[in-house]
Amino acid sequence: MDKFRMMFQFLQSNQESFMNGICGIMALASAQLYAAFEFNCPCLPEYNYAYGIGILVIPPLWFFLLGFVLNNNVSMLAEEWRRPMGKRRKDPTVLRYMFCSISQRSLIAPAVWISVTLMDGKSFLCAYSTEVDVHQFGNVSLQGLSEEDLIRLLAKIPCKHIFDGQSIISREAATRYLRCVSQAFGWVFLILITFTAFMIRAVRPCFTQAAFLKTKYWSHYIDIERKMFDETCTEHAKSFAKICIQQYFESVSGEMRSFHSPRHGDSDDEEGKHKSDDDKLLGIRAQDDMNKVLWNWHTCKPPLDLKSEKTGLNGDVNGFSNHVKKEWAVYYSKV
User: What 3-state DSSP class applies to 281?
Assistant: First the structure.
């Protein structure tokens, strides 16, 4: 159990690296899933386009949503966006930074799927087989063939086992043509994605770095604050439950203390542990008080203005001069 706890704490402390690893694994999974996927074009004019475009669009959309689901910052972003104003204002730039960071990681796997699908060409071939111009493949005789029959024949191009129009149009030539077009779109897509990423990397330093650092700092602060609040609540709940159980057993088995009195050392250890647990309660010892604290934390978070010791004139602390304190400490040490 301790190993799992240590692993969980490591993942929490290295959440950014962990999420980058998750995005890489999802990208590899998308490529492997496409390789294991059995592509079966219906070869019907009514369904070819829907099936081909669906294979090109629906899995990337699923990978995109899965990237949001696996990212722990989504709930933090939604909580920060929906929380009441309270004593702490909400910064829209921080929310935009968090959303863009989540979206960038979630777009990796969909981009890989679309690239692999276009490079393979099966989906594009199934979707646009009925759009092929048969006249560009040479002298084609369409005598006695209606437009509806021609479309039905072209829809069978992706299915070599049922294609029966070899005398009218070369299936191999049409397949090669559509796959070349699909690969061309795939390379264009990769170039656009790479160019967009390059522009984001290159243009961002041109803007004010102070604003970017401020946004990045407060986004990290929101994440760390939430984690520490959860840890503090966990420690408080453990101490609250421990003291509550101890008081229960003390009240029930109080009569046994006279017969089995603990040794002095044991009592000191128990008292020390009790004090440490009592310190973790932070003065909150009732259920209603804890509910009020949790409610106030959600509805009225404290302002980000830390209180410091009151300073007097000339850098004095609490109205006392540092020089006077130093002389008093020297005098006390002599005594």
Answer: coil
